[in-house]
Amino acid sequence: MPSSSHVNEVKSVLIAPLPTPHWGSQSGAAFTVRATVTVKAPAQPILDALLDTSTWPQWNNFVPRASLSNSPEGSKGSTRLQPGTIFTEHVDMAGRGRSTIVKMRLLMTTLDDLTEPGRRGHKVVWLGKGYPDWALRSERVHEIYQGDAEGETVYDVYETFSGPLAWFVKVFVGKALVNRFGQWNGELRDFVEAGSRQQAEVN
Questions:
Q1: Domain membership flag for residue 188
Q2: Residue 201 is assigned to a structural domain of this protein
Q3: Local structure of 34: helix, strand or coil
Q4: Is 187 domain-assigned?
Q5: Residues with Cβ < 8 Å from 24, sequence gap 6 or more?
Q6: Do the beta carbons of residue 120 and residue 130 sit within 8 Å?
Q7: pTM for the full model?
Q8: What are phi and psi of 91, to 5 degrees?
Q9: Which long-range contacts link 144-148 to residues 24+ away (Cβ below 8 Å)?
Q10: Fewer CB within 10 Å: C terminus or N terminus of the chain?
């Protein structure tokens, strides 16, 4: 796996809760974890690496595997996430390998184009489905859009947690989530940039 040392460092923080597409602004929201990185590659390979879960073992130490419980009609056996896909993330929260894997059930809800001025690209959203909504709600938003410099793309991901259990999540694993979100972004960046360099050499 590529080295984590990089000029485009990941910014990963725990902040006040941000509104999300499905849940909106909630009075019971506890916090948001957000990580942003600039990738020296076009938007499409970033989107492909994010959605094609068969690539995750190659770059993703935070979630080294995902199991798709269902695929929308016509995509049986697919490893690519799309709206309507229910899937399970095999999460290595502690970073110690298989002994610490936690399974998180999710539903991908959105794959849209971003068309805001200065933010042209893609938006992917998935919802946490591991707990009853009254106890814990989580929604993760991935935005991939053109960066300030030519040939650069911004990958911005944030997840907002709400409900009574969200406060326990914040206290007990909030710091770990910040670190692991940053790791996710950095490893995705390194994987995509390595692929882009290889493609350029072939061409």
A1: no
A2: no
A3: strand
A4: no
A5: none
A6: no
A7: 0.91
A8: -95, 125
A9: 144/43, 144/46, 144/47, 144/50, 144/114, 145/43, 145/114, 145/118, 145/119, 145/120, 145/121, 146/43, 146/119, 146/120, 146/121, 147/38, 147/39
A10: C
What is the per-residue pLDDT across 64-99, written as a single tens digit (0 to 9) for each? 999 998 766 555 678 999 999 999 999 998 876 666
Instruction: Report the candidate in 129, 47, 134 with the shortest Cα–Cα distance to residue 82.
Output: 47
Range of the domain at 76: 11-182
What single letter denotes the amino acid at residue 55?
Answer: T
Where does residue 20 rank: exposed (0-12), middle (13-18), buried (19+ CB within 10 A)?
A: buried
Give the number of domains in the chain: 1
- Average of per-residue pLDDT values in the chain: 91
Asked if residue 129 is part of any domain, the answer here is yes
Which phi and psi angles does 6 have, rounded to 5°? -160, 145
pLDDT by residue (tens digit) across 9-62?
A: 999 999 999 999 999 998 889 999 999 999 999 999 999 999 999 999 999 999
CATH of the domain at 172: 3.30.530.20
Q: Half-sphere exposure (CA, 13 Å, Cβ side) for 199? A: 9
Q: Which two tokens stand for residue 171?
A: 């206290």
